[in-house]
Design brief:
Strand content of chain A: 15-25%
Shape of chain B: globular
CATH class of the largest domain in chain B: Alpha Beta
Number of domains of chain B: 4
Radius of gyration of chain A: 16 Å
CATH superfamily of the largest domain in chain B: Thiamin diphosphate (ThDP)-binding fold, Pyr/PP domains
Number of strands of chain B: 23
Strand content of chain B: 15-25%
Oligomer: heterodimer
CATH architecture of chain A: 3-Layer(aba) Sandwich
Strand order of the largest sheet of chain B: 3-2-4-5-7-6-12
CATH superfamily of chain A: Pyruvate-ferredoxin oxidoreductase, PFOR, domain III
Shape of chain A: globular
Order of helices and strands of chain A: EHEEEHEHHEHHHH
Radius of gyration of chain B: 27 Å
Distance between the termini of chain B: 53 Å
Number of strands of chain A: 6
Largest sheet of chain A: 6 strands, mixed
Chain lengths: 192, 590
């Protein structure tokens, strides 16, 4: 099988890294060789976060360059736009419809991209794209912290991996008292 | 059993399995998680030392005591520890020692880019370079065996993409360790590097390098992988993985040991491969050696960048330029227009922010240091003039003040950084009498690398309670008469202390003490802007807090948007409340 490349992007604190941990482990359970790469450190202070996960029979590099991502999962609209160059032409983008204006916008200097600009760029860059209300779904369930699992649910629709693998890994990775909530979050994502 | 581990987790596991009993480090991205993982294993003593030199001296001591030891640091940490590396290369040990150098090509979280393979050649010690997490684990044990067999420290060089990438790792059992407390193996001619003894050790080191070069010929991870023989790739570390993606069918010589090099193996490979191509991040370390051996390199640093980190795309583009592959990956040109950047910023409520706000107000030259407060270099705070390396701030400020410019220079340095490398500089100011004011930004933790304890937190890496270092007492012991302690979130107090210190025209220390916001269980308060009172003067924006945003309400006279406070980001530090001249910012009453 050829390698499947994922990029998960968002803002520090949104749960991007936990989601990429889960995605990597699901790949292992599904029988793939898996690599994952991310950067820590200074970047965590409210900056952009980018993590890459690769599944395949044999994976060499822990990350790929621009134009090589099959699935872009963005936790935030602006960060999704920033990473569109990573997508393959036939790639798929799943974007949470949340807006987190960076300081350059909130302090009044620059403008957050309009919905029209976002739609246009996404349709240009991807074979198909889905702007999904992951945050709203998570809030309905009681916590915005489950947004990442909703997004994984949405992503899972595009992958041929048994649902049980996903649920098992989610259960193992979230605090015990939030397992039921996260199962629902995953189901909500699959329903999007 | 195979599990997904990051390179750092794998190194920790390798230390556990191979019977390491002593591990030391100073936190530094990308190496920090090595010790944070080692401390979770039974049977290994682990510590955060005040700096990398102390960490390495301590690990050397453990190896002198006949045990297996490990010291970990980021690339620039090895600069700090270089002296210890050199003497330990002369002495060797009764036990075994692996030194982790975690390089940061691309400078994700570092002040400079450097290729620490040069240290192996420089200090005449062997260096191993894993290409993934599995090897990161295995090379700890192999490194210790080499250390013990050849009586030498062994450098294990990682890079950011090895440290922070996960791959599948086969786990093993811990080697059984007997706590065999023997008398110290006294051997002053080997362990005391006075000139007469050191002269005897140097030829031993030279012979050791020759023996190691022989060993390198059979080192199992210096490996030829034959494919299409018209192209022979020579690669190390993670560059090997990138090159494998780009040249799936070519022949490879992958060098798991990058010093000393297996010359016979290299010559043999080069003679059988058509074109020899060297793919290595940063400096042309392998390439230069191959050229010195007379091997013709068809493509090296003339195509593959010397600057920054690689990825498969960069390697592929360079290979395309060099005519080695027929096509590159097409990157779509998407017109997204200009996007607002999202750089990291000091958190809302960060106690460092008001200090820089005040320094800006006084127009001082600000010489700064390594920590979260490096974010004060960039807008919106932009109040830092120089920033070099751990501990540099105080020495530089002293030099500027002695040499003389119109403005006064002050130093800002964090708590952990002061303990790491600030003390000699602090002493220099008072000893050589400059009117430098040193501001110790004490947020009670090593914040940037993830809130590790340090010598004035009263806690060790292993969780034990311990002595708390005292900056004020330290300054007085050095001879400072001007020592002040303030809460930086109280602007009036902060300004008075700064002004009094500057006016004294003497060596002075101001400790600004307030916990990092991550030390709180919950935020102390939340603030809001009374839009009736706000006249959009923008004074609160000058603090540069990410929680202060533009509201939709426009001030009629100025046409300027009034301020608003983002209730999710606001931490309740109340600094904005203190700068507002209109009394328009207030705490939300619960």
């Amino acid at each position: 099988m050829k390698t499947t490349n994922f990029a998960l992007v968002g803002v520090g604190g949104q749960g991007v890294l936990l989601a990429s941990d889960i995605l990597a482990e699901v790949g292992v359970r599904a029988g793939f060789d898996v690599k994952k790469s991310e950067v820590h450190g200074m970047a965590q202070r409210g900056g952009s976060v980018l993590s890459q996960v690769r599944w395949g029979d044999k994976v060499y590099a822990p990350l790929v360059g621009k134009g090589e991502i099959d699935f872009l999962v963005s936790f935030e609209l602006l960060e999704g736009l920033r990473c569109l160059e990573f997508l393959k032409k036939e790639g798929i983008a799943i974007v949470n419809d949340q807006r987190l204006p960076p300081l350059a916008v909130s302090s009044g200097g620059m403008e957050y991209p309009s919905q029209e600009r976002i739609d246009k760029a996404l349709s240009q860059a991807s074979k198909e794209y889905h702007i999904v209300p992951a945050l709203a779904k998570a809030q309905e369930l009681g916590t915005e912290r489950a947004t990442n699992v909703v997004l994984l649910g949405a992503l899972s629709n595009h992958l041929d991996v048994a649902e049980e693998h996903w649920l098992k890994v989610v259960e193992e990775r979230v605090p015990k008292k939030y397992i039921e909530l996260n199962r629902k979050a995953f189901a909500a994502g699959r329903g999007l | 059993m195979k599990v997904l581990l990051s390179g750092n987790e794998a190194v920790a596991r390798g230390a556990y399995e191979s019977g390491v009993v002593f591990a030391s480090a100073y936190p530094g991205t990308p190496s920090t998680e090595i010790l944070e993982n080692i401390v979770q294993y039974e049977g290994i003593y682990a510590e955060w030392s005040p700096n990398e030199k102390v960490a390495l001296d301590a690990a050397i001591g453990a190896a002198y005591a006949g045990k297996r030891a490990l010291a970990a640091m980021k690339h620039v940490g090895l600069n700090v520890a270089a002296e210890a590396l050199f003497y330990s290369s002369h002495t060797g040990f009764d036990g075994g020692l692996v030194i982790i150098s975690a390089d940061d090509p691309g400078m994700h979280s570092s002040q400079n880019e450097q290729d620490n393979r040069h240290y192996a050649k420089f200090a005449k010690v062997p260096m191993l370079e894993p290409t993934d997490s599995q090897e990161a684990k295995d090379f700890v044990g192999l490194g210790l065996e080499i250390s013990e067999k050849f009586d030498t420290p062994v450098l294990l060089r990682l890079s950011t993409r090895i440290c922070h990438s996960n791959g599948l790792v086969e786990l093993g059992e811990r080697k059984t360790i007997k706590d065999d407390r023997k008398p110290f193996a006294r051997n002053p001619t080997k362990y005391c590097m006075i000139p007469g003894f050191a002269r005897r050790r140097h030829p031993v080191m030279e012979q050791r390098l020759k023996d190691l070069a022989e060993y390198a010929e059979t080192f199992p991870y210096n490996k030829v992988e034959w494919g299409d023989r018209s192209l022979g790739l020579v690669a190390n570390g993670v560059s090997y993985q990138y090159a494998r993606e780009v040249f799936p069918d070519a022949s490879f010589l992958r060098l798991g040991m990058s010093w000393p090099l297996p010359e016979k193996l290299i010559r043999d490979f080069a003679s059988k491969a058509g074109k020899v191509v060297v793919v290595e991040e940063l400096d042309p370390f392998l390439e230069e050696h191959l050229m010195m051996m007379g091997v013709e390199v068809a493509a090296g640093k003339d195509f593959f960048p010397i600057v920054g980190e690689f990825n498969p795309g960069i390697v592929r583009d360079a290979a395309y330029e060099a005519g080695l592959v027929d096509e590159t990956v097409e990157v779509q040109k998407i017109d997204v227009g200009e996007l607002p950047p999202r750089p990291p910023v000091l958190c809302a409520g960060c106690p460092h922010r008001p200090v820089y706000y005040m320094l800006k107000k006084y127009g001082l030259v600000v010489d700064s240091d390594i920590g979260c407060y490096a974010l004060a270099v960039l807008p919106p705070i932009a109040t830092t003039d120089t920033l070099g390396c751990m501990g540099a701030s105080i020495g530089v400020a002293h030099g500027i003040n002695k040499a003389g410019v119109e403005e006064r220079a002050v130093a800002t340095i964090g708590d952990s950084t002061l303990w790491h490398a600030g003390m000699p500089g602090l002493l220099n100011v008072v000893y050589n009498k400059s009117n430098t004011v040193t501001i110790i930004l004490d947020n009670l933790t090593t914040a940037m690398t993830g809130h590790q304890p340090h010598p004035s937190t009263g806690r060790t890496l292993m969780g034990a309670e311990t002595a708390k270092g005292d900056f004020e007492a330290l300054a007085r012991a050095m001879g400072y008469g001007e020592v002040r302690t303030v809460d930086p979130l109280n602007l009036k107090e902060l300004e008075e202390a700064l002004k009094a210190s500057l006016d004294s025209n003497k060596p002075a220390v101001v400790v600004t003490r307030s916990p990092c916001i991550f030390m709180y269980d919950e935020r102390p308060a939340l603030h809001y802007v009374d839009l009736e009172r706000c006249n959009a003067c923008d004074r609160c924006f000058e603090i540069g807090c990410p929680a202060i945003i533009r509201s939709d309400e426009i001030h009629a006279k100025s046409g300027n948007a009034k301020a608003e406070i983002n209730s999710i980001l606001c931490f309740g530090c109340a600094v904005c409340e203190q700068v507002c001249a209109r009394n328009a910012i207030h705490m939300v009453e619960e």
